[in-house]
Write a structure and sequence with these properties.
It is built from 16 helices and no strands. The protein is mostly helical.
Length: 353
């Protein structure tokens, strides 16, 4: 594949970002200019203390649905009122009866939500935080002050991540620049991998991919697994959550096995830019099971992986692989974001005119 013009790609991104910012500004202006509801007074009466607490309690539910029509607004109002009243009820049996129809109501909606049990637990903690006197002492004692504050001050997605239940967004998957401090705990692993690498290279003439029990092949597979684990540990040292590190790890792991081993009889020791390109533009999207957000960070996963391998001294020159990542980028983004690619193509046509 011919090498893409890097400056052209960067220019497209800058143009796209400016366009998105302009669209957001226009949307905000449109919202601010909306006429008031017919018959609505110029100023709303002040909220009572209980109403203010309920409004704060309701924020995650409103954000979850983002109501734009009257039926959606009525539905979210029913959910807010329902959860608020249910958790005001100290009798747990009566509370379950009040919560049951809310679960049915949520099941009838087409927007994505966590399980009803998970959502209920999150909202219960929020309710205890905002109205502790509505809950018996034994129920309040089930949670630490920190757990209640997390539910009160984190939105639902953030709380799910903090509790190990959610899928990280693209922002939570960003990998900082290489850090010697984050790599420092890998010192012993690095020594072991370097020693294994030397031993494998010395025996490479006896390698056979056709024999699954070939001693050198088994050593290579073990070496690769250890390296991928080290990469995951390194990402944790950079501050990524366990789930975020697992997504990056899952992007890399199938590249070595089964992809390189089964399709090319190759490994970390014989990988080529062509192997990397085929995996990115074909194998990964067709053959691997992955989180939707993993597609958006696949190239970042590999960029950070090769950077770590180079800094650990396991690969002398990763420039050809890193260059191929850049060359694949535009085509890959067109594959995973076809609508945005079409918009950019239209913008390019307009620029040429």
């Amino acid at each position: 594949m011919a090498k893409k013009n890097k400056k052209k790609i960067q220019k497209k991104r800058q143009t796209k970002a400016l366009k998105q910012r302009s669209q957001k500004k226009a949307a905000k202006k449109k919202i601010s200019k909306r006429p008031k509801m017919p018959g609505a007074p110029g100023k709303m009466p002040p909220l009572s203390a209980d109403q203010r607490k309920m409004a704060e309690f309701a924020e995650p539910l409103i954000s979850l649905v983002n109501p734009t029509s009257m039926p959606e607004m009525q539905m979210i109002a029913a959910l807010v009122q329902g959860f608020w009243q249910a958790y005001d009820e100290p009798d747990l049996e009566k509370r379950r009866e009040l919560l049951e129809p809310l679960g049915v109501l949520l099941e009838e909606q087409d927007f994505e939500t966590p399980s009803f049990e998970t959502l209920s637990e999150y909202l219960l903690r929020r309710h205890i935080y905002f109205k502790p006197d509505s809950h018996p002492e034994e129920e309040r004692a089930l949670y630490s002050a920190e757990q209640l504050e997390e539910a009160a001050f984190l939105n639902l997605a953030e709380w799910l991540l903090a509790s190990g239940q959610g899928t990280p967004g693209e922002e939570q998957l960003l990998i900082p620049e290489f850090s010697e401090e984050a790599a420092a705990p890998l010192a012993e692993t690095q020594k072991s991998l370097l020693k294994q690498k030397a031993a494998i290279e010395a025996e490479m003439d006896t390698l056979s991919f056709l024999d699954p029990q070939n001693p050198v092949l088994l050593k290579i597979l073990d070496f690769q697994n250890q390296l991928v684990e080290a990469f995951s540990e390194y990402l944790g040292g950079l501050g990524l959550s366990e789930k975020a590190a697992a997504i990056h790890k899952a992007n890399i792991s199938p590249f070595f096995d089964p992809y390189l081993r089964e399709y090319h009889q190759a490994s970390f020791f014989s990988v080529t830019p062509e192997h990397l390109e085929e995996y990115i533009l074909d194998y990964f999207l067709r053959k691997t099971e992955h989180e939707p957000v993993a597609e958006k960070v696949l190239l970042k996963s590999f960029a950070a992986f090769w950077e770590l391998a180079r800094n650990l001294g396991l690969i002398s020159d990763a420039s050809a692989l890193e260059d191929r990542l850049e060359e694949c980028e535009e085509e890959y983004l067109e594959m995973i974001e076809p609508e945005e690619a079409e918009e950019e193509a239209i913008d390019d046509d307009e620029e040429e005119k």
